[in-house]
Every structure is written in structure tokens, then in C-alpha cells.
Amino acid sequence: MQKPFVSVKTITYNHEKFIAQCIEGILMQKTNFSFEYIIGEDCSTDNTMKIVQDYADRYPDIIRVISSENNVGWIENDHRTDMACQGKYVAFCEGDDFWTDPYKLQKQVDFLEKNTDYGLVHTNFSCVKDDKITKSIRGNEMLPTGNVLEELIKGNHIATATVCMRNDLLRKICIGDTIKKHNWRMGDYPLWIETSALVKVHYLKDDTITYRIHDDSATHALDWNGDFRFFEDRYQIKNYYIAKYNCEHLLPFISKVYHKELLKYAIFLKNEDLREACSIYFKKKSERSEFAYRLLSDFTIFDSIFCFIYSSRKKLKTIV
């Protein structure tokens, strides 16, 4: 049997409310090449597997299901799904997101075929929360394209479900090994950074997918303590790659952004150690502005202002 030209991969767990829409978005793709669809189903406790298997039975020439008798966790599920992809290119769509452009794959593959120095293409996207859709989050803004390593270390601007990349890069990087070594809670962000260190990355303004925000997701269901652990991971990742790729000149920028965000967690977690870390940083940086430092140091006043402005933690969520 001839290998598919493109592999699409989905990892899913307890997505019974969303997985059918995810699968339909892949099956509607219009391409002049063959593609396969690999679904890593990690022993969901709801009806996700039943829905996935029903689609696999109806589309046996396209869909392959990767599963096991026991739950293996997201890192292993992600890795085994990666290894099952046979195509020259791999595209991603997590089980609670969905594609909306039937020509998404065709556009991305066309670009990668014509531009061999590029290894990854991502696109604009929409968000949906409580059935309210925010269209084309990036608007007409043109995100960094080409050599984007430093921009990605500064912050993740790539939404996973928009990505199509070369499979040889995915296998070469084998990001699961790095994630397990450092015990990070996210795998897509490190993968994009590692990819951008090897090849150019391209951004398309086309809105091709919808990213779903819901209370059952791995990140959006977190309390402040869980959210803080993801925040800390994100900055461990940044610092790891700053050292790995000799980008020490980015440290002042990263430190500034880090402490601004840390202040948020110091207040909401009522953690005096975090407050002290912020106080030391802001005092050092505000030597020429005594008033600004006093305002930042007076947590009684700042708590009230901050909590009034950011009354809901969900307003502070990022894509990462």
C-alpha cells in the first residue's frame, strides 16, 4: 500500500462532546494528495472511544486508531501517535478543537512543497467559548515569518491545531524525550521552539481552525495553583532554550514579563514569597520612580485594584 502524503494526528481523552466535530473537520479536507488520520485515544472514561471507533469503521481507508488497554498519559499518547504518522507532513488537531477551512491542508502543503527551507506552517484561528465565536484572533496582523527562534522564546504565538510540519523534523526532534526529562506539562511550545532552531517557520493569515475554550480542558479547568504550575513551566522552557541556543540577550525581556505575571499569582495565591520576589525585582527596576515602586509595593492597595480589574482568572488565559 502506498504511503499517505500527509498524516493528520489527534490525541484525545474524554472529548465525547467535541470529538465528532474535530473528526468531521479533518474528513472534509479537499486535497490533491492522499492523507491518513491517526487518532490517539487514551482510554477515555466517557463515550469518546465509541465515537472514534464508529468513524474508524466508516472510514477504514483514512482513520487509524491508536489505543491500549490502559491509560498511558498525554506524553506517551502523543509520542505513539507521532510515531504512527507515515506521511511526509504531519498536521495537528487536538480532540476538542476543529478545522473550519476545507483547504487548510492543501494551502499548507503547497507552501511547504515550494519552500524547502521552511519546515512548519501555522495559521490564524478563531476561538469559541460558551457558543460565542471570536473570529480571526490575529486579525490582519502578520506574525513573524522566517527565522523566528527568538520571537518564539519570547512567547508562543502558534496555536497547535493550525500547524502542519515536516515529519522528518518531528521524528528528529522527538520532543517527548525532552518533556519527560524536564517534567514539563506542555509539549507543543517546546516542539515549536526546537523546530524554529532548525528551519524557517511561516505564518498564513488564513483563519483555518477554531480553538475551543471550555472548563473541561486540561488548562482552562485549572485553579490558580494549577495555572501557576503551567506558568512556571512556561518560563522554565524559555530559560532552558535561552541557554541552549545562546540567546542570553533575551533575559532582561523575559525577566520583565515573568515578574509582571508573577505579581498576578502572588496576589491571587496570597503567597508572600512570590510577593517578596516581585518586590525585590520592582524595587531594583524602579529606582528612578519612587512613587511607582511604592504603588507596586503596597499590596493592600494593589490587591484591590488588581482584583477589580481581573475579577475572573479566565480573562488571563493564553493559548500556550
TrEMBL record:
Its EC number is 2.4.-.-. It comes from Paralabilibaculum antarcticum. SUPFAM superfamilies: Nucleotide-diphospho-sugar transferases (SSF53448). Residues 7-161 form the Glycosyltransferase 2-like domain. GO terms for molecular function: glycosyltransferase activity. The lineage of its organism: Bacteria, Pseudomonadati, Bacteroidota, Bacteroidia, Marinilabiliales. Keywords: Glycosyltransferase, Transferase. This is Glycosyltransferase.
